[in-house]
Design goal:
The protein is an all-alpha fold and 284 residues long. The protein is 71% helix and 0% strand. It contains 15 helices and no strands. α2 packs antiparallel against α3 and α10 crosses α12. The chain is flat, with a radius of gyration of 24 Å. The C terminus is likely disordered.
């Protein structure tokens, strides 16, 4: 069994790097963050704020002074990161060298694709509101000629909105994405969100007014019926049926306990999905 000695103090005030919605309390956590986000890190990571946090909160003034020299001499990001990894010793030398190489490689990525990669990482971690904000800021700075990248960003915005159940807003983003990219995937996502932002009658009326979408819309409706049938075979559906039976049989105290437990579970899951770094108990 390997023994890892910690370096410095456990911070009382966390460091929150580059709008990633993550709170870091130790140098070991900082190294883990660097290793996990090596391809996403930007030059803003090299900040006086980080150096001050390392010196004051973690009690490592010698490392802080060394990193300050890097800022003064305008050393590159890979070198800056390398000094942190070498000082803490969280990773073996070979692993640390590999991380430094990845940072050097991706630090040369153009700022637009790097910004999208950062937003994609937030989306993948289910931090939908934060990803949405990042995609929106990216759209504001994208050059007019970046049509494909614009379309990809609109599609991702649609995914963020859809997973937060704002289907009408998501439909608009997917429609714009389809106009820019011509991707059939975006068209299907658009129709899906239109379906769930309307009643069945409204959706059929929409299809009749858009003949080009009628056949695909009907196919989508059949696919959703199949998915509904599959869902009815899942444990989640059977659990809901159990709660419904309690209510229908007049077992109201049992139903109330079941309902509150289910509600609290869903609230906790939703807060974790959209939180900005605070714990659920702190938000409750």
């Amino acid at each position: 069994m390997a023994l890892l000695l910690t370096v410095g103090k456990h911070a009382t005030v966390p460091f929150e790097p580059e709008k990633m919605g993550i709170q870091i309390y130790s140098l070991e956590e900082l190294c883990f963050y660097i290793g996990d986000h090596a391809s996403l890190m930007g030059s803003s990571f090299m900040s006086q704020e980080l150096i001050q946090w390392i010196s004051e909160e973690c009690g490592c003034e010698d490392l802080g002074k060394e990193l300050s020299k890097s800022l003064s001499y305008q050393n590159n990001l890979a070198s800056f990161v390398g000094k942190i990894l070498a000082y803490v010793g969280f990773y073996p030398r070979e692993k640390a060298a590999m991380i430094e190489t990845v940072v050097a490689k991706y630090s040369n990525m153009d700022p637009f694709h790097k910004r999208k990669a950062r937003a994609d990482a937030l989306l993948e971690k289910e931090k939908y509101t934060m990803a949405q904000r990042e995609y929106g800021e990216l759209l504001e700075i994208l050059p007019p000629g970046e049509k494909l990248l614009q379309g990809e960003v609109y599609q991702c915005l649609g995914i963020c909105m859809g997973r937060l159940f704002f289907f009408e807003g998501a439909a608009g983003y997917f429609k714009r994405a389809y106009e820019l990219t011509g991707k059939e995937e975006c068209r299907r996502q658009y129709l899906f969100c239109m379906r769930y932002s309307m009643t069945e009658e409204q959706f059929l009326d929409f299809l009749e007014k858009n003949p080009g979408a009628y056949a695909e819309g009907v196919a989508l409706e059949n696919e959703l019926d199949n998915l509904k049938g599959q869902w009815q075979d899942t444990e989640g559906y059977l659990e809901l049926k159990t709660g419904q039976q309690k209510r229908n049989q007049g077992r109201f105290l049992e139903y109330q306990d079941w309902y509150l437990e289910k509600l609290q579970s869903e609230q906790k899951a939703y807060r974790q999905m959209v939180h900005r770094g605070r714990t659920v108990t702190e938000e409750a």
